[in-house]
């Protein structure tokens, strides 16, 4: 009974978020999102920062949020350019909150939509070595742990994770929890990087870069050991 109620609540939240996005698309008009996507495709932090500043405070916040959502949906656009740009414009903690919320929301939307279409329907599109490796590990080990770890492993585009994971037995709540628990680390470091870069605080900027390098090396070296422990 509790499980059914939980699933209904998750479904209701998903529908409300989807309706909210449709309203915002209508409210801000198609031109707004076309320009937003064009700016994102440049992968240029300066152009993104300039575009967001032009929007004003609230529209700028919404732009960064939507850029973070679109980054996930688009699969291969790197999130670092958005997060560094946000750090340039806002205080690092505001930038982090906006980018983090957008990234988690984007993953939730893609995963939820893929699940609604049917198990693995969208995951089939990504039948390459990385996607197959990820699916194999999700099915062999603890799905939530693998999804969380995948967000930290270099070489796996974060955008493919919700598509591939939709073909596994992981639940909507479990997937969102795994993304939320792991994705914040790199997002906050990227926001630190932009924040300190624009303010000329290069020592802290170097620390943010060094922390990312250490994190990437540790995860890369130990990924197989960690996955074996969860088998």
UniProtKB/TrEMBL annotation:
Query: Which membrane topology term applies here?
Result: Multi-pass membrane protein
Residue ranges of coiled coil: none
> Member of which family?
Belongs to the TVP38/TMEM64 family.
Q: Where in the cell is it found?
A: Cell membrane
Name-wise, this protein is TVP38/TMEM64 family membrane protein
Q: Which UniProt keywords apply?
A: Cell membrane, Membrane, Transmembrane, Transmembrane helix
> Which Pfam families is this protein grouped with?
VTT_dom
Transmembrane regions listed in the UniProt entry: 9-28, 61-81, 93-114, 145-165, 172-196, 202-221
**Ranges where the VTT domain occurs:** 77-195
InterPro entries cross-referenced by the UniProt entry? TMEM64 (IPR015414), VTT_dom (IPR032816)
The species this protein belongs to is Catenisphaera adipataccumulans
GO CC annotation, single: plasma membrane
């Amino acid at each position: 009974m509790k499980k059914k109620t939980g699933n209904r609540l998750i479904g209701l939240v998903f529908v409300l978020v989807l309706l909210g996005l449709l309203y915002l698309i209508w409210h801000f008009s198609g031109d707004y999102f076309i320009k937003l996507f064009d700016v994102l495709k440049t992968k240029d932090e300066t152009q993104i920062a300039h575009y967001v500043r032009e929007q004003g405070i609230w529209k700028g916040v919404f732009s960064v949020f939507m850029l973070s959502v679109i980054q996930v949906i688009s699969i291969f656009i790197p999130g670092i350019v958005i997060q560094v740009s946000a750090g340039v414009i806002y205080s690092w903690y505001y930038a982090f909150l906006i980018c983090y919320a957008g990234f988690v929301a984007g993953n939730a939307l893609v995963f939820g939509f893929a699940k609604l279409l049917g198990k693995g329907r969208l995951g089939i599109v990504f039948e390459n070595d990385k996607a197959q490796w990820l699916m194999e590990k999700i099915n062999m080990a603890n799905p939530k742990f693998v999804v969380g770890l995948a967000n930290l492993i270099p070489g796996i585009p974060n955008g493919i994770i919700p598509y591939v994971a939709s073909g596994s037995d992981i639940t909507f709540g479990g997937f969102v929890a795994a993304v939320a628990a792991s994705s914040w680390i790199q997002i906050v470091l990227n926001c630190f990087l932009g924040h300190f870069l624009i303010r000329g605080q290069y020592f802290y900027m170097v620390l943010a870069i060094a922390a990312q390098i250490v994190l990437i090396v540790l995860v890369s070296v130990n990924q197989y050991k960690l996955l074996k422990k969860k088998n």
